[in-house]
Amino acid sequence: VLAQGLKNSPPSFQRIMSDDILIYSGNFDQHLQHVNQVLAILNKHKFQLNPPKCEIFRTSIDYLGH
Questions:
Q1: Range of the domain at 23
Q2: Of 22, 44, 49, 59, whose CB count within 10 A is highest?
Q3: In a domain, 39, yes or no
Q4: pLDDT digit string (tens) for 13-60?
Q5: What span, in angstroms and rounded, lies between the C-alpha atoms of 66 and 12?
Q6: What is the spatial distance between Cα 45 and Cα 35, in angstroms, rounded to a whole number?
């Protein structure tokens, strides 16, 4: 349900649509730990992931066009 009115709708919509997660870690062992922590939090709050859209354990990415 989206709040009505010009003042409340944009922030409410943005909270819903900010659905990208970027996890950066210093090394692979830390990354495993960080990924597990994020997945546990998502699970706790009943969020679901779309596996075909997930890219896990990438060594580099283009982010914000860079």
A1: 9-53
A2: 49
A3: yes
A4: 666 666 788 899 999 999 999 999 999 999 999 988 999 999 988 888
A5: 28
A6: 16
